[in-house]
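pasting FRIGIDA-like protein for the record, 529 residues
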Amino acid sequence: MMEDTRSVASLMDSTSSKIQQLQKAFAELESQRAVTLNLKWNELEEHFHGLERSLKRRFHELEDQEKEYETKTRKAQELLEKKKAAVEAKEKASLERLQRKRDAAVFAINTALDKYSNNNAPNISAKAFAAEDETLDGTVQDAEISPVKAYPELVKLCEDVDSAGLHKFVSDNRKNLALLKEEIPVALKAAANPASLVLDSLEGFYPTTTDGKKDANLLGMRRTCIMLMECLSVLLSGLDSNSLAAVLSEDVKDRAKGVAEGWSPLLETIDMDAGNGNSLEAHAFLQLLATFGIVSDFKEDGILKLIPMVSRRRQAAELCRSLGLSEKMPGVVEVLVNSGKQIDAVNLAFAFGLTEKFPPVELLKCYLTEASRSSSQGNASPAIIIVICVPMQDEFSERELTGLKAVIKCVEEHNLEEQYPVEPLHKRILQLEKTKAEKKRATEPTKPQTKRPRGPQPRVTDNNNNKTGYGRVIPERYPQYVYDNRQFLSGPIMEAQAPPPQTYTFSPAPAHGNFYGNCYQYQAPPYFH
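structre below
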């Protein structure tokens, strides 16, 4: 690059000698010319000097830009090297910290196994799980001291193997769901057999006398059952093979298999939420298989058919991993796309790295196109049946509004704003909400309003001839003018010029008489002009 710059500079410096040679040639040509030329050497010289100045100015500009680019490149390289060094230092520190924790965990596990073998306990006590109670400095807390701080009642309920009490306590404190999910796995360590305790809590998931679609308490109870199974999975994930085999014994697995076989036929009559991918029954069944390790006892095709029923659930991706369906997810995502559940398909595609095969932006646009088409078809009803189709139009508009909000949430969760701007979607939401509000105001019945008289209120006086008991109203439509009492408006001259008042009496029709519409008689007052 520098050699090219030097060659260009040398060529530009040689322009002066080239111009002098051209001048000599031009003078020789002019001396031998037979015809007078219109051009003069001064004009040619000025032209070439102008070109020379322009080229030098552009050349210097390019040199400055090249220097600036080299400076920026050097600074960027230095910054990258600093960041690389910082990342390597952090990685090294993390590995060292992880190694210390690993050594401490291995020591804690060996200690717990020694205690377990010395005590020869027939069940799994809290000491068997001491390896999980590792602190940040690598030490192990005493298992006899409960680490449950917010809800110590959980430990007591687990020690007493009170499944009904545990169920009720969790249901009553669901407002602090995040804290419960952290402390329940720790509290389950106090149970003689955590897996049996959770299985006992599943009783009543399918009651025989209550309609699950209408009973809100039943829905809450089912959510609690799912959460307890999830917490048990968290506990089991931290155990070694020996402790895991002791907790999930063959008897426990047989009990869990019996429960699953009893639930399986009932999945054919699940509620309408299954079509929306939000079925609690299907979620509980799949969680039961994953938590107790009995997936192999059921057909894979039947399990795959249940995944679309829970695709909208927050735990859908983790549940599929626990069931060992990671390799089957491309087919599951394709089924969701074909069934109109593009948003669920996008979420699972991100969770399992399938975004290249299933482009998220295209799926979201397809989802909105279908929602908008349904809305436009609902609004294109003939004028004769508009009144009949108003509820259907409202349903289509509400469906499009829900779809827009779901797409915006999906875009924001997966950081797709650059590929799919959401500003047009927000404008469309405002338009639909405005239309919805206008339709609501138009359909609301108008309330009759009492008319209030304007201006001063009429003066009511007694009338002895009025037999109805109501006072006669003397109309005073205009208040007295403020200048009526001036002296120059009175006197003999003004009285002589003023015309006499004329009186007009209005007589009602003889067929009706002096009566109002409510059969009350009235006396017509005279009108003055």
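The mean pLDDT is 76.
Residues 41-119 form the longest helix (79 residues).
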